[in-house]
């Protein structure tokens, strides 16, 4: 088993006033040659956006973009839709940029901050027709069990959003004192685990809120919780 550990405080950080951004991988003005990507996972940003503020219209192409609001209200509009759409905590949004799409994302609240994860996954097919989707996932569906949020558009996994990559994005909320074994889809894959909250250990490595760990060259690994913990798993091909 190969492992890498990214402690929360080691992430890139940018304070734009209206945006507090933590970067797990090199992004915008932050560059670390040791943190460019993890296999097909290119970006994992942990953003907090001030009320009424956000990202103006900007383009993307040939990237699978996944957004997971944690608190607040995200408002989204893109060149495939004329109207603003709300994405709430408990929901997940995907956008296959493909041949090209423009979009805007803003905090839909006048008073509350918006907290979210934004994930970019390099696709296995380029120049596809752009597409958008979003789905609500019940928190009870990840209580001490794995809840798959995103999977391959070429796969047969039911109930998840789809992207153009042989990837799995999942969440779990584990009670204190629980042991959970994660089974990888393929030994050619790796898993990047982000600790949303809590404290747990993997292979005697203790991880706290917003600490992350990349695992590869194994078929499975075990997690033991020291506190109630929420985890995000991003499993991707490494080549």
TrEMBL record:
Coiled coil: none annotated. Residues 149-236 form the Quercetin 2,3-dioxygenase C-terminal cupin domain. GO terms for molecular function: metal ion binding. Belongs to the pirin family. Keywords: Iron, Metal-binding. Fe cation binds at residues 58, 60, 103, 105. Its cofactor is Fe cation. InterPro entries: Pirin, Pirin_N_dom, Quercetinase_C, RmlC-like_jellyroll, RmlC_Cupin_sf. Gene3D superfamilies: Jelly Rolls. This is Pirin N-terminal domain-containing protein. Residues 11-121 form the Pirin N-terminal domain. Binds 1 Fe cation per subunit.
């Amino acid at each position: 088993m190969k492992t890498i550990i990214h402690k929360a405080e080691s992430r890139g950080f940018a304070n734009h006033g209206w945006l507090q951004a933590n970067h797990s991988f090199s992004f915008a003005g932050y560059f670390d040659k040791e943190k460019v990507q993890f296999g097909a996972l290119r970006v994992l940003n942990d953003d907090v956006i001030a009320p009424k503020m956000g990202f103006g219209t900007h383009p993307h192409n040939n990237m699978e973009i996944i957004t997971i609001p944690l608190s607040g209200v995200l408002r989204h509009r893109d060149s495939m839709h004329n109207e603003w759409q709300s994405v709430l905590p408990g929901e997940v949004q995907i956008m296959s940029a493909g041949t090209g799409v423009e979009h805007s994302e803003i905090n839909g609240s006048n008073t509350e901050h918006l907290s979210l994860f934004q994930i970019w996954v390099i696709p296995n097919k380029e120049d596809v027709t752009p597409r958008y989707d979003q789905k609500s996932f019940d928190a009870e569906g990840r209580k001490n069990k794995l809840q798959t949020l995103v999977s391959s558009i070429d796969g047969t996994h039911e109930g998840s959003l789809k992207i153009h990559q042989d990837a799995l994005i999942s969440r779990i909320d584990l009670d204190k004192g629980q042991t959970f074994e994660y089974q990888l889809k393929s030994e050619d894959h790796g898993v990047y685990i982000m600790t949303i909250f809590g404290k747990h250990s993997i292979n005697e490595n203790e991880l706290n809120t917003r600490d992350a760990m990349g695992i590869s060259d194994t078929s499975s690994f075990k997690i033991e919780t020291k506190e109630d913990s929420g985890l995000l798993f991003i499993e991707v091909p490494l080549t």
